[in-house]
Amino acid sequence: MKRFLGAALLAAGVGFLVSQATRTPIYAASNGQQPSQPAANTTPAHEEDLAKAGSEVFGQNCAFCHGRDAMGGETGPDLTRSKLVLSDSGGDKISKVVRDGRPTKGMPSFTFSSQEMDGLVAFIHSQAAKAAAQAGGRRGVDVSDLQTGNVEKGKEYFNGAGGCSKCHSPTGDLAGIASKYEGLHLEEQMLYPREAKSKVTVTLPSGEKISGTLAYLDEFVVGLRDANDTYHSWPTSKVKYVVDSPVEAHVEQFPKYTDDDIHNLMAYLQTLR
Ligand code: HEC
Ligand code: HEC
Q1: Could you tell me if the CB of 105 is within 6 A of ligand 2?
Q2: Which are the contacts of 178, defined by CB distance < 8 A and separation ≥ 6?
Q3: Which of 53, 129, 168, 249 is the most buried (most CB within 10 A)?
Q4: What are 95-143's pLDDT values in tens digits?
């Protein structure tokens, strides 16, 4: 299934999309520590309940085509590797497909309450995250796929439609990138630079601005680490903040790539040794 090569590799991004979709913290400190106490109801328990309820709805309505685990069945595709699912945010894409169906392609339309729909969306995202975690995000990827791209076209895409050259340079920050990461790892970084830190600028009620590395963000709390690595946080209701997320720029690109674009880009990046 080469069609979903990119999707499988972006699996690393699933967690991000899931959490965005379900309003749990959309960013947590990468060392896994929860800085300070976030406001009361940020527990993921609610999301788990939602996904659990969704699994029942899924089991009754969708499983016979898409498989119990959403990984594909007799007549329906694997949803955990679907580009549409991976680029879904808060159900915006999934719910449309479910409501409208694709009658000419064997996907019926359904009418669900918004609660049921939320459950379905949570379940599908949790399955996608699970699938990604299980396989280290590399399921079904054939290394030889990485050799099939066209270098010239990849370069063109980098400087043109892909918009990569707005932020990157082959002789600057990406010089030697192919020596830094091999094959699949390079592709993962290209699609979803997991290590990239987001910056945030918080404007206090007094007008004072504080910038730093985003360390925590949910509906209620925004937290950053300043240049001295000191953690600060504020209630989101009391301050204004702007997040500059390089990861997001990459995620936004994701639904726009064709598989050829990805292969060509990979071929091009692999020349940067
Ligand atoms: C009768 C079989 C069948 C049932 C039942 C069914 N689907 Fe589908 N579904 C399909 C097929 C076939 C496709 C692929 C359509 C296409 O090729 O465009 C699809 C596509 C989708 C897609 C889009 C995937 C993509 O990458 O474009 C989503 C999301 C989806 N189904 C979710 C659901 C959910 C949720 C349910 C249950 C509420 C469900 N489906 C029930 C057959 C089914
Ligand atoms: C809005 C700016 C922006 C755009 C557009 C963008 N990137 Fe990035 N990219 C970044 C930032 C920032 C990082 C993180 C750099 C770091 O952590 O060293 C990054 C990381 C990467 C990395 C990993 C670099 C490393 O050293 O780990 C690769 C590869 C990459 N991007 C490729 C691309 C490609 C290919 C495109 C176009 C399809 C693209 N980027 C578009 C900002 C951008």
Answers
A1: no
A2: 186, 269, 270, 271, 272, 273
A3: 129
A4: 999 999 887 778 888 899 999 999 999 999 999 888 776 654 443 444 5
Do residues 54 and 234 lie in contact, with contact meaning Cβ atoms separated by under 8 Å?
A: no
Q: The domain 2-134: what is its CATH number?
A: 1.10.760.10
Domain boundaries, the chain: 2-134, 143-194+248-269, 199-244
Query: pTM of the prediction?
Result: 0.49
Which residues are bridge partners to 216 per DSSP?
A: 28, 223
According to DSSP, the residues that pair with 2 across neighbouring strands are: none
CB proximity list for 118: less than 8 A, separation 6 or greater: 50, 54, 91
- Structure confidence by residue, pLDDT tens digits, 17-46: 333 333 333 343 333 333 333 333 334 678
For residue 177 and ligand 2, the question of a CB distance below 6 A is answered with yes
Asked if the 199-244 domain carries CATH number 3.30.10.20, the reply is no
Residue positions counted in the chain: 273
CA distance 2 to 191: 16
Q: Using a 6 Å cutoff on CB, does residue 249 contact ligand 2?
A: yes
* Residue ranges of E strands in the chain: 27-28, 199-203, 209-217, 221-225, 231-235, 240-244
101 lines ligand 1 (CB under 6 A): no
Interval between CA 193 and ligand 2 midpoint (Å): 7
User: What is the Cα Rg of the chain in Å?
Assistant: 20
